[in-house]
Structure prediction request, 372 residues.
Amino acid sequence: MKLKSVTLHQVSIPLVTPFETSFMRETEKDCYLVEAVFDTPQGEITGWGESVAMISPLYSSEYVAAGIDVTRRWLAPLLFDVENLTAETVGWHLRHVIGHPMAKSALEMAVIEAQLKLNNQSFKDYLGGVVDSVPSGVSVGIQDSVEETVKVIGGYLEEGYARIKLKIKPGKDIAPVAAVRKAFGDDFGFQVDANAAYTLVDAAHLRRLDDYGLLLIEQPLGEADIRQHAELAKLMDTPMCLDESIVSAEAAADAIMLGATSVINIKPGRVGGFIEAKKIHDLAAAHGVAVWHGGMVETGLGRAANAALASLPGFTLPGDISGSNRFFHEDITEEIVMYDGKVDVPTGIGFGVSIDPAKLERFRTESVEILP
Ligand code: OSB
Ligand code: MG
Prediction:
């Protein structure tokens, strides 16, 4: 395949309710989609990708405008130069550009999708997925009160989600967790995500979470604090899970060897793409480390691709792969449906969903066309 053009579509999609983490409160999903056109032996094929970069550099150093800029100036030009571009070699062609894993992943997604279309293949079959549906967990934002937290989680349990993940931060941690266990008992999967809001000084406080039978605690400390997570893991019974710190397969290897993570949250965007994400899945499986699929409030496009990756055998815990209606009144693709606590793994060619042109038109705020 030869890359002919790349168009980046920035979109802003209203959220059903604000989503609050320890680092920001979002009311819209702001991201960009990649539309890449390729010359192939079967004529022109278009592949789509989605960047998980957020509007501000608060989860990681990446943000929407920077992703668009680095793609336009550096990443797309590198791929325009390649005669025979394949999904498996995108990362290698982009290797000299330091950082920007989310921007690289979005481009790689578009190449993957075009290649799947060329080969008449679903993403699940390409990856070697082994199940037809994956358990669907829901990520619950920080609420204004403990009562509200209980009410919101009660609603998701009622809907049938396979596990609940609650965002926490200092001052909004033990009390909501205790109240949720008190209200709904110990018989459901429950975990927390701090998005790097604590330091090792908080170890004694965080240890109080051990009383609530949590599946795991996700990223209590900073992105660079892999060794400190290993220290904290020794002080807590709750399994340690890294998200922000796992920026590559190498970082995953370090975290596993240091005992900093007994569970890994895999997000393709955070590690530079689905090919790297699969390497981390394989590495973790070889070390007996459980993995689960994280989420970045993706549209149906990203969620469909995530569900395919999560159909690999190492994904033994429910992922942040909730239905479209968890975040959106209206998704930009066909709706991703959660039923009986699970989501179907798409079986159609490519990612198995398509961008609705009318919705793209409606949600789009800007488009940038990039040519060789
Ligand atoms: O830490 O997992 C996270 C969303 C944005 C940034 C970071 C995170 C999240 C989520 C969303 O928890 C989960 C989802 O997409 O369902
Ligand atoms: Mg997280």
Observations:
- DSSP finds twelve helices and 14 strands in the chain.
- Residues 14 and 28 are 4 Å apart (CA to CA).
- Residues 124-344 form a domain with the TIM Barrel fold (CATH 3.20.20.120).
